[in-house]
Amino acid sequence: MEVNQLMDLIVNNGFPVAVSAYLLIRLEKQIVSLASSINKLNTIISTKLGVVIDNDDSNKVA
């Protein structure tokens, strides 16, 4: 692979990868917050209905 081809590869693919990584890192806190809110809502609804719903912690966002 020549230097020009390598530079074109970095320029064409590097920017979208960098933007995607930045957005994923930035949105991680909001995703965790939403998951927590959904779990709380699940608990409240199951308590009101008198139904026991097992919270699956295996899908928890780290």
Describe the structure concisely for a colleague:
The protein has 62 residues and is mostly helical. The chain is 76% helix and 0% strand.
What does this structure look like?
With 62 residues, the chain is mainly alpha-helical. It is built from one helix and no strands. It has one domain.
Question: How is the secondary structure organized here?
Answer:
Elements: H1 3-49
As a percent range, the share of strand residues is under 5%
Distance between the termini: 39 Å
Taken in chain order, the helices and strands follow as H
Major beta sheet summary: none
Mean pLDDT: 84
Count of folded domains: 1
Number of strands: 0
Helix/strand/pairing category:
mainly alpha
Give the uncertain stretches in residue-range form: none
The total of helices stands at 1
Helix content range: over 70%
Cα-based radius of gyration, to the nearest Å: 21 Å
Shape: rod-shaped
Please tag this protein with its features:
mainly alpha; rod-shaped; about 60 residues
